[in-house]
Amino acid sequence: MRHDHRRRTAILLVATCASLAFVPAAADEAAAPKRFGFGRVATPEEIAAWDIDVPPDGSGLPAGSGSVAEGKPIYAAKCAVCHGRTGVEGPNDRLVARPGEGFPTGASPDSWTSRTIGNYWPYATTVFDYIRRSMPQNLPGSLQDDEVYALTAYLLFLNRIVPEDAVMNADTLMDIRMPAQGNFRTDDRLDYLEVH
Amino acid sequence: MGEQKDRPGLNVTRRAALAGMAGAAGTILVRSVDGQDVQASSDRLWVPDDPTKVLGTWSSVYGERSPFENVLRLKTPTGTASWTPLQSLHGTITPAALHFERHHAGVPRIDPDRHRLIIHGMVERPMTFTLKELKRFPAVSRVCFVECSGNLYRDAPEDTTPQRLCGLTSQNEWTGVMLSTLLREVGVDPDASWLLAEGADAAVLTRSIPKYLWNEAMIVYAQNGEAVRPSNGYPIRLLNPGCEGNSSVKWLRRIEVGDAPFMTREETAKYTEPLRSGGARQFSLVMDARSVITYPSYPATVERGWIEIQGIAWSGRGRIARAEVSTDGGQSWQPARLQEPVLPKAHTRFRHLFNWDGKETVISSRAIDETGYVQPTREAFLEVRGAGAIPYHNNPITGWRLKAGGDVVYRVEEWA
To answer: pTM to 2 decimals?
Structure first.
């Protein structure tokens, strides 16, 4: 057997430790009120201004749209300097998978640089979310929603996931299933006492 | 001492100390007792021959270390990370100024009076809190490590220090409010199972935090007794003890409570680990047990005779139960002494006396935590994760080679 799993024991131990986990007492629990009443209720406007995340259910996708054709010049002007003319030249992260490039594994010669949108990113919504919140690095948060849709469309096109005439919006983005989806599994290391 | 001997009463300024430690002989500025910056030779820092014969300097409003002390973080050329000088520290607390840094879009400048934390989503009452309001809640202090998941320089050559090898781990006393206190305040939906933590930096960095971490999580505003440093999240950060540092979102401004992971870029495209068996591991937050010998290590030199081997051991799963030291290249292991108190999810200093006979050998350490988890060898690690595995959550046993002449070098590991 390659690993001495001792899995059942490990689960018991982890369960025991979890129950004994060091949780500092925040206050005299008996004296603590249900609520302290500090802070104030956040207004819908305050929340809306910051609530920019787009999870896989697409719940945060804004109105607007953008096409592959519209994304191409935006990419050239604002992204190519870091990611290369075609998304593979760098110097920063490679964005585009090579034709046929599959999901990297621990046996891949260099899984670090093998992670691109086309072969590693499991959700297209994350592409939109990340570009909108963080890119471009020298002017973060400067892109309009239409530009973000267009860049998402263009990067998906470069990765051969959508055709050249694709238009991305809150509906079409939800139709995309990324090649890498299904390749991720939730951490199970704590079930084991050896490297896993 | 040369001509500097003739200049009593000079304080060496910070700039002078920096210039001095650069080791370049030349001219530096020193500050005289009457506040004038004057030029002096930087060949060596001036000291009186007899400190009992020269009036000392008076109190200061913010302390500085001795100008003879020049331990620094090591930073990347791009400035996206800096490493803690593990080989130069004692005990278990990292000075805040030497706590490692890792950030994805620089350190933001934030006005604490304007900063807000909003908690919304699956809650009864979405709330917003100022820093002042957060400080009104019952406070808690906790000593624990924060470690970057990418904390191993795999292809390290012989001339590698512990700092460069694995200095992306640091330990501080953190003070703040328990996350659970705030979640009770907003009335979290019992069906909620994940929350999104978002920073106010230019990356607007986001991570999904699973419910099993909520009981221990804190929102901290203090680090080693003073305000959290800007590079560590000023004015507030999330703290997930024992977990990869990226999850302890700095400059925290928003928490959204939900019932599914948000699948942010960090937890999909980045902090996930392709496995040798195929697929990739996700939400691998807890840091496994680890140890490193910090003395003797490169660039120290040693002499035959008694050596007190020292190092630190830590585990994100709980307390360190044992740290073991091998002085024969991993053939046999002896338990090291642990410095009390041994805290959960905390750097624990270990020490082991070794009477070196002067012959070349390899010293190494391994950690065993209270769950029984044993720090793996590189071979065992590679067998599971694969030679091409991403250097996240890499915690193999490492060692130092004591050469016959007393030079100490890193034991180079073959990763490919």
So the answer is: 0.89
